[in-house]
Amino acid sequence: MKITNATVNVCSPGRNFVTLKVETDEGLYGLGDGTLNGRELAVVSYLTEHVISCLIGRDPFQTEDIWQYLYRGGYWRRGPVTMAAIGAVDMALWDIKGKALNTPVYNLLGGRSRNGVLVYAHANGADIEHTIDAVAREIDRGYLAVRAQSGIPGLDSTYGVAKGNKPYEPAERGLPSESLWSTEKYLQHTPKLFERLRKRFGPDVHLLHDCHHRLTPIEAARLGKELEPFHLFWMEDPTPAELAEGLGIIRQHTTTPIAVGEVFNTIWDAKILIEKQWIDYIRMTVAHAGGLTHLKKVADFAALHHIRTGCHGATDLSPVSMAAALHFGLAVHNLGIQEHMPHSAETDAVFPHGYSFHGGYMYPGDEPGLGVDLDEKLAAKYPYQRAYLPINRKLDGTLFDW
Q: S-S: 344 plus which of 14, 16, 245, 370, CB 3.0-4.6 Å?
């Protein structure tokens, strides 16, 4: 079997997606997700100008060699654009391999380690009362784990809180908007939220929270310590993780579990964090971590250090990435939990898929390959639209982490 062609589809059924389609001389094709929120066209250019021509004539079964060719052979390694492009190729090749062998991809990753993949929903509200109502709705839908975010008194907008009754989607059409932030107000407010949630829902529901890289290590340590009585499943991205030692400071002061990694691209971003056991969950994205070939290595390395996985799974990734994450989560022994933000009806129609949710778990399905297709005619009705993530500033105007 040889690769004969590869094309890139860019569509926007509610938000932008970059999909790579790799075709073979035996009529099989595979799909990969190369979406990079707010930088989609950079990945498109990388694929079309530099990668696709290198794939023609290669054996799609050689996933390891092709991965190394695109990573080592490119000389300029790492970075979100490069790794998203490699991730798209890698997913497509695993999809082809599964179809050729007439088996779902999880069987090629070691087979089932569990019956289903535990997932968590997102619940948010303008204030604590609205967040409590949102958590109740997700529990009623069958979720066993819920990430809770709340608007903060004195701030007009807060990360993770949707506008109006729409699902939360941070990317906005046009140039980046700006929002204001106060760490002090956030630290005063957040423990109150989880005190109320535990009082209302009891100890059994898994509660999660995302700090979105906005705290210094000692601020995150304070928050983690104050959240300890409420037994969070995890505190996500408490501080920017470029300085790994910062997570070591947090670990010294709190037993609240820590999850990081959605902005990581390679195992080298997480190496020290894993070796020192300064984190509990590694949250790298299938697309942005170079695909399943590399992410499986990260998971195996993490397993040696008592660290579990929790792949990023927001709607800034297409159903192709979600399917890949579910096959990965079903197979790896050290799964922690999988993020689940349901896509819009328009997105689901463009990407028909075999995965499903019920009873708090998701199931990748048993179709050969990844179990996701692309309706190219329907996708053409949703052309690319420029969109950016917001910009964040402190109350005094200082540019801050969004």
A: 14
CATH number 3.20.20.150 is the correct assignment for the domain at 108-366: no
What pLDDT score was predicted for residue 157? Answer: 82
* pLDDT < 70 positions in the chain: 164-165
Which pLDDT value is given to residue 167?
A: 74
Q: Which among 120, 143, 159, 361 is annotated as catalytic?
A: 159
Q: Buried b vs exposed e over 368-396: b needs ≥16 C-beta within 10 Å?
A: bbbbbbbeeeebeebeeeebbeeebeeee
Nearest by Cα to 355 from 344, 345, 342, 346: 342
End-to-end CA distance of the chain: 45
Q: Does 108-366 match 3-104 at the fold level?
A: no
Whether 186 is a known active-site residue: answer: no
Active site residue 213: no
Cα separation, 124 vs 43, in Å, equals: 31
Marked catalytic residue, from 212, 294, 327, 353: 212
pLDDT digits (tens, 9 = 90+) for 238-284: 999 989 999 999 999 999 999 999 999 999 999 999 999 999 999 99
In this prediction, residue 172 carries a pLDDT of 83
pLDDT given at position 161 = 86
Extents of the domains making up the chain: 3-104, 108-366
CATH number of the domain located at residue range(s) 3-104 in this protein: 3.30.390.10
